[in-house]
Amino acid sequence: MSVAFVREPNDTQAVETLPDREVSAEPNFVTARGLQLIEAEIDQLNGALSKAKAEDDKTAVATINRDLRYWNARRASAEVIDTIPGAEEVHFGSRVTIERDDGRRQVFQIVGQDEADPTKGLLSYVSPLARSLARKHVGDVVVAGPGEAEVVAIETADG
């Protein structure tokens, strides 16, 4: 009989081979809020790990350990970038309002990769739009997807 038919899905050998999550080669710039989110994720995972160990859930333990390796690496490499009050050009941490060529106005904050969530207006600093916006001033026009957008406001964001 093949071992595939006798091994339980929660067998240690079956879960030891979980691949690590890929860590970006880009510098790990974070806002102060981004660092807090990383630390909160680590705390949450440590709690989940204790529970999974108590329940002898080897699959969960392996998955959580993999995620903890990722988040601990991200915390270790995190470089908090302070906002620049009163800056007149777009930089990491800026909150930028753009007006697209179709008239839509959108507000984005330039943040770290793990903090990014475009649906909430949080753009990773390595995203194409954030790269286009870097070092731009009010009135500058940038490529934004298939069209263009004008920078209409730059604000200092709160961490």
UniProtKB/TrEMBL annotation:
Species, as recorded: Aureimonas glaciei
Segments forming domain Transcription elongation factor GreA/GreB C-terminal: 88-154
InterPro entries on file: GreA/GreB_C_sf, Tscrpt_elong_fac_GreA/B_C, Tscrpt_elong_fac_GreA/B_fam
Superkingdom of origin: Bacteria
Lineage: Bacteria, Pseudomonadati, Pseudomonadota, Alphaproteobacteria, Hyphomicrobiales
Protein name per its UniProtKB record: Transcription elongation factor GreB
Keyword flag Protein biosynthesis: yes
Annotated SUPFAM superfamilies: FKBP-like
GO biological process: DNA-templated transcription elongation; regulation of DNA-templated transcription elongation
Keywords: Elongation factor, Protein biosynthesis
Gene Ontology terms for molecular function: DNA binding; RNA polymerase binding; translation elongation factor activity
Coiled coil location: none
